[in-house]
Write a structure and sequence with these properties.
Largest sheet of chain A: 5 strands, parallel
Largest sheet of chain B: 7 strands, mixed
Strand content of chain B: 15-25%
Shape of chain B: globular
Structural class of chain A: alpha/beta
Number of helices of chain A: 10
Order of helices and strands of chain A: EEHHHHHEEEHEHEHEHEHE
Distance between the termini of chain A: 87 Å
Helix content of chain B: 25-40%
Oligomer: heterodimer
Radius of gyration of chain A: 20 Å
Strand order of the largest sheet of chain B: 13-14-15-12-11-17-18
Largest interface: A-B, 49 and 52 residues
Strand content of chain A: 15-25%
Shape of chain A: globular
Structural class of chain B: alpha/beta
């Protein structure tokens, strides 16, 4: 007789814990491709879950941004180590989520883990690359250095379920921001597995919070939330019922920094996440602080 | 009672500048009449007298200016080499230096700021901004913007600037835009258009190709027509947070880029080990410089409780020596409030401060009987919840709060929606750096305040806006982003 498999109950990832949605709702996740098959029931997050995640993310800002850059790099590299150990699970998740062949899924997972490693090397270099001493015309020491902007809301890419997900989370957190991520609505399983990786590595609870659910329902709460400093609208592309212009407009009320989705005009497309990125995504969630101090005797 | 040490009047002559009785709009290299013939008066706020009639640009005028800018971008300025663009900017910098006195006098007449500030701060810095950015024009690939490929301009830039530093804000906006190869349409503030119009003549004098710089005068409607124009690639705005939010909403869903320099409620933190006389000078220049019409003004004094009485006593003594009055007098420290409207806003907020229970104090001083004036004012017994501790007043009004520990100072300093500037006064380096790290502000002046330089990025956190102006970081606002990811 065939063994009865142990099915997982998928939950949210908030503040380093795995709560159910306070709404008690879940939704069916099916595989992509020619013959969709039931994969799992994912938690269907609510407005309250988003707010709880923002509270957790805000609470984690001081510790994460206050850690040394060396420490953040170590912690991020540790995530890659744990992810590498879970490679087979990621491959299975990605193959099922995206409806791609196993070899293709392997390439995507390898690229995703390598992307995380690439970012793990950035925290202790950003200030040197993006900051400088300013030669002001007067007797002052004057330095500009980058700082994290705070809590970043992220609409994860809808299609690239792991490489895309990592390509939007890592650049936001390398500098010390914390994030609230709305996972791909139809392909959330790699995000849930990533949350298990994060929970078992050294990333402090609250630095990354992942909500599964309906993007169109949840994104407006994130965009209008007064305690979210920036929002990445990458995942507005190909999301059911999501109008990125409306999200950007509501972000204006709190002078939120907005990273627009790729594309031209009012179009939103999902970019190709394969090439090595520039620092554009890192810069989008940075502030520049300039400190003046007189020189004299 | 006369002491024998009073300063004799030392008025600057207004004769060095010719003010025309009316001005057109500067579009495509020429002064042209507004399409519907509308105009408004610009006043000398120190006397209330009209200086000139200025054109009110309509949507059609804005459209003509944007078309002129687009044409110049496509045909002349975009294709021109960076080295050649730079030479024009160097020319402009030199002309501004040569005509500095004329500009300073005109700025003071139109704005009401003391001549010693327009002469020693505004105009030299404006020239320095053109000089600094001129050198970037042929070196953009060294700006470290992390873009794929060669740095490229964005196209036509719409710029809207405030009335507090009219020529300086113009130079902050126009110099980097032109250096990167963009063309501009700039709208000066309705109460202070004259130095921008004189700058238009400088552009002519420098033989800047027609259409590279266009100046459309007007008020909010004109600004709205500019920021909502479909053929603008980027909007740069300096002004109130409310208007900044409106503009951010209006560009939502477009690919127009936007940078915002908005309001502030800067904290000036004085620790008990600070050099107190220097700190008092810093407090004074932090809030009474330019009549407090400064977005990064140190409008909240956070003083350590153990020295609060001493600092306030020294501050009051120092304020008694501030000379308030005729901005054209070289001895004047505090000039006129820019407009009746602004005076009303300051008055209303100050009355709210009194109504909420804070203690109001001003040094004895005689204010002129015409024009718009407000005596330097200090509020003590201020709580964090008071409006005078939370809202930007944009006038010579200081709110004093106290703290006991460094952590409390930081918490109070960060306790507004704004995050533009802050000051720290302490003799202890480690405490200065500790504090600077924790302040959510774009510019932190340690043992100094209100210092500016073209090489130094300026801009805010939180609701003080996004983007930087000046320095290498400021260029980013005017250069194409390169690859999407």
């Amino acid at each position: 007789m065939a063994r009865v498999d142990v099915r997982k109950t998928y939950k949210l990832y908030i503040g380093g814990k795995f709560p159910r949605s306070e709404s008690g709702r879940s939704y069916e996740v099916v595989s992509q491709g020619r013959s969709p098959a039931f994969l799992a029931n994912a938690a269907q997050g609510s407005r309250k879950d988003v707010r709880d995640a923002v509270v957790a993310a805000r609470g984690a800002v001081a510790g994460w941004s206050g850690a040394t850059a060396y420490n953040r790099g170590q912690v991020l590299y540790r995530v890659a180590e744990v992810a590498e150990g879970r490679r087979d699970q990621f491959v299975a998740d990605v193959a099922a989520a995206e409806g791609v062949t196993r070899p293709r899924a392997e390439r995507l997972v390898d690229a995703a883990i390598d992307r995380w490693v690439w970012y793990a090397g950035w925290p202790d270099k950003l200030a040197q690359v993006l900051g400088n001493l300013n030669p002001v015309a007067g007797p002052y020491l004057n330095i500009s250095a980058p700082e994290p902007t705070g809590v970043v809301g992220i609409l994860a890419p809808q299609r690239s379920s792991l490489l895309g997900l990592i390509s939007v989370i890592a650049p936001a957190i390398v500098s010390g921001n914390t994030v609230v991520v709305l996972a791909s609505e139809e392909r959330p399983l790699p995000a849930i597995t990533l949350s298990e990786v994060l929970a078992t590595s050294d990333v402090p609870g609250g630095v990354v919070n992942i909500i599964t659910g309906r993007t169109a329902e949840l994104a407006p709460w994130l965009a209008s939330h007064q305690d979210v400093n920036a929002i990445d609208l990458t995942g507005a592309a190909f999301a059911q019922g999501v109008d990125w212009a409306a999200l950007e407009a509501s972000a204006a009320d709190s002078v939120k920094r907005v990273l627009r989705p790729a594309g031209t005009g009012t179009d939103a497309i999902e970019p190709d996440f394969t090439p090595t990125p520039s620092l554009r995504r890192v810069r989008a969630f940075l502030e520049t602080k300039t400190v003046w101090h007189p020189k004299g005797t | 009672m006369p002491t024998g040490f009073e300063y004799a009047p030392a008025p600057e002559s207004p004769a060095v500048v010719d003010i025309a009785s009316s001005y057109g709009l500067f579009i495509g290299g020429d002064f042209v009449d507004p399409s519907d013939g509308a105009s408004f008066k610009t006043l000398n706020p120190a006397t209330g007298e009209a200086l000139s009639d200025v054109s009110e640009g309509s949507a059609a005028d804005v459209d003509a200016a944007v078309r002129a800018a687009r044409r110049a971008y496509d045909r002349v300025w975009g294709p021109m080499s960076g080295a050649e663009r730079g030479k024009y900017l160097f020319r402009i910098a030199r002309i501004l230096q040569e005509r500095a006195r004329e500009f300073a006098v005109l700025e003071t007449l139109d704005n009401g700021k003391p001549i010693k500030e327009s002469r020693d701060v505004d105009i030299p810095l404006a020239a320095a901004h053109f000089f600094y950015h001129a050198g970037w024009a042929d070196k953009l690939e060294y700006a470290g913007l992390g873009n794929a490929g060669k740095p490229a301009p964005l196209g036509v830039i719409g710029q809207v600037i405030p009335w507090n530093f009219p020529l300086l804000m113009l130079s902050w906006k126009i110099a980097p835009a032109l250096a990167a190869g963009n063309t501009v349409v700039l709208k000066p503030a309705e109460t202070t258009p004259l130095t921008a119009l004189l700058f238009a003549q400088v552009c002519q004098q420098a033989d800047l190709p027609p259409g590279v710089v266009n100046i459309v005068t007007g008020a909010g409607e004109t600004g709205h027509a500019l920021s909502s124009h479909p053929d603008i690639d980027k909007i740069a705005f300096t002004g109130s947070t409310d208007v900044g939010k409106q503009i951010a909403r209006s560009v939502a869903g477009t690919r127009k880029r936007l940078t915002l320099e908005l309001g502030g409620k800067g904290a000036n933190i004085v620790y008990d080990d600070a050099a107190l006389d220097q700190a008092v000078e810093g407090i004074v220049s932090g809030i009474y410089f330019n009549q407090g019409h400064v977005c990064c003004a140190g409008s909240r004094l956070l003083v350590q409780e153990s020295i609060a009485d001493d600092v306030i006593a020294r501050l009051k003594r120092r304020l008694g020596t501030l000379r308030v009055g005729d901005p054209m007098d070289k001895n004047t420290d505090v000039g006129a409030i820019n407009s009746a409207e602004q005076l009303a806003r300051i008055t209303a907020l100050v009355e709210a401060g009194e109504a909420e229970g804070a203690t109001r104090w001003s040094p004895p001083c005689d204010l002129p009987d015409r024009g718009y004036w407000f005596a330097p004012t200090v509020f003590t017994n201020v709580s964090q919840a008071h409006r005078v501790a939370q809202e930007e007043i944009f006038g010579p009004v200081l709110s004093v709060l106290t703290f006991r520990t460094p952590a409390e100072a930081v918490a109070k300093a960060n306790n507004t929606p704004y995050g533009l500037s802050a000051g720290i006064w302490s003799d202890k380096g480690s405490r200065v750096l500790w504090t600077a790290d924790r302040l959510r502000a774009g510019v932190v002046w340690a043992n100094s305040f209100n210092k500016f330089d073209p090489t130094s990025p300026f801009g805010g956190y939180k609701e003080s806006g996004y983007g930087r102006e000046g320095g290498r970081h400021g260029l980013e606002a005017y250069v194409a982003a390169g690859s999407e990811d």
